[in-house]
Amino acid sequence: MEEFRSVRGFHDLLGEDTEKFNTVRQTVRRVLESHNFEEIILPVVEYAEVFQRSIGEATDIVQKEMFVFPDKKGRLLALRPEGTAGVVRAFIQHRLFALRPYTKLFYEGPMFRYERPQAGRYRQFHQVGAEVFGISDPLVDAEIINISYKILKELKIDCTVEINSIGCRVCRPDYRKALTEYLESVAGALCEDCIDRKDRNPLRVLDCKVPACKTAVKEAPRIGDFLCEECEKHRRELTDYLNSMGIPYVENPNLVRGLDYYTRTVFEMVSQELGITVIAGGRYDYLVEEMGGAPTPAVGFAVGVERLAMLVKEPVQKKPLYMVLPMGDTLHYALRVCELLRESGKRVELSYRKGGLKKQLELANRLRADYAVIVGEDEVKEENISVKNLHTGEQIKVSLKDIFSAVL
Ligand code: ATP
Ligand code: MG
């Protein structure tokens, strides 16, 4: 019979890839917890409308990339393509705004997008993301960028911080008009998608990856020249904060992001090595209101875990492995030794194989153990263990009563 294969775009993670993946997750979680973010565990499935309404009907995600399916009663559900919409839905549903003056949440887990699979682009991928609700001060935008910057620094990944402001309800319409007029004038050079985008969602054209479109928008009007006073002040204060925090950044006037809900600050961390975006985020001051809540300013970001994992050179080292090898009739004693070693914080495995010392040591080596803990009949009698360093060959005896204090 033919073997089963995993579905295209859906991957298993094994061995070192898993270690790198977890190194990223744990680093992100640690940094977020140090900034007092609380975890929210969200469902993978929402009503499709949650995403259509928030991400925007005219975006690639909603138009082409969502896994949408009817349930048995015909309601349209979707596998989540991103995390923010679900957090906002939960923020409103649980009246979180009433519990605290402001709210800081993070989430993690798989996201699903029906994209063309390629390196760093999968149909199931993972994000860790964070959101702050209730503060419009650019201090929070700066905190979110600072968190992203620290994550990359801890992971020793070289990135450029790109920022932009995409304005607000006051100033964006004027810009949109100017941009649409410009795009009309270069329409001949645009790809088919962008011909459609220029009327429905012209800012999206700035984000198109087709080389011809990238060239065509080089001379496009810049949002920076259209910002209203409030947006300009927000932008200036944000860059002041970043400067005083010592975070290097470049202002990219064409940075717009692939989701409709952003206002003012948008940012991306771009890997120099691979030329891809690994962390992205921004402010979305109207989204809570657009999803049925009270007007609430908000800002957040999402980390692409696989993309960062690709760039991790050295995953966090696992603890050394102690392999306990019972010889002869010593299994019960060996089990006790295993538990004592684990209680003292060690990573321990009991050999499931039977056999003499040579065979057992061979097994320990094949399982890449760092230490062999030899438990023979002598050790049982003397109430001790023999610990052999498998890298140096050095062997010492340790009394059971000293197991917690001994340097093994
Ligand atoms: P891109 O422009 O690369 O398509 P995006 O703008 O769609 O990215 P976001 O929706 O902002 O990405 O998601 C935030 C991060 O999640 C991205 O910066 C990236 O690291 C990661 N990401 C997005 N889509 C995928 C995917 N299909 N596979 C793997 N990682 C992804
Ligand atoms: Mg995308």
What order do the helices and strands come in, and which of them pair?
Elements: H1 15-34, E1 38-39, E2 45-47, H2 48-55, H3 60-65, E3 68-70, E4 76-79, H4 84-93, E5 103-112, E6 124-133, H5 138-154, E7 159-165, H6 172-185, H7 192-200, H8 211-216, H9 229-245, E8 250-251, E9 263-271, E10 277-283, H10 287-290, E11 298-304, H11 305-311, E12 321-326, H12 331-343, E13 347-350, H13 357-366, E14 371-375, H14 377-382, E15 384-389, E16 395-399
Parallel strand pairs: 1-5, 7-8, 12-13, 12-14
Antiparallel strand pairs: 2-4, 3-4, 5-6, 6-11, 7-9, 9-10, 10-11, 14-15, 15-16
Helix pairs in contact: 1-5, 1-11, 5-9
The chain binds adenosine-5'-triphosphate and magnesium ion.
Residues 82, 113, 115, 120-122, 125, 127, 257-258, 277-278, 280, 302, 304, 306-307 line the site of adenosine-5'-triphosphate (ATP).
Question: What report would you give on this structure?
Answer:
The chain has 408 residues and is an alpha+beta fold. The protein has 2 domains: 15-171 and 227-311, Bira Bifunctional Protein, Domain 2 (BirA Bifunctional Protein, domain 2, 2-Layer Sandwich), CATH 3.30.930; 321-402, 3-Layer(aba) Sandwich (Rossmann fold), CATH 3.40.50.800. Helices cover 36% and strands 22% of the residues. The strands form 3 sheets. Strands 1-5-6-11-10-9-7-8 form an 8-stranded mixed beta sheet. A 5-stranded mixed beta sheet has the order 13-12-14-15-16, sandwiched between helices. Helix 1 (15-34) packs antiparallel against helix 5, helix 1 (15-34) packs across helix 11 and helix 5 (138-154) packs parallel to helix 9 (229-245). The longest helix has 20 residues, at 15-34. The protein starts with 14 loop residues before the first helix and ends in a 9-residue tail after the last strand. 39% of the residues are buried. The structure holds adenosine-5'-triphosphate (ATP) and magnesium ion.
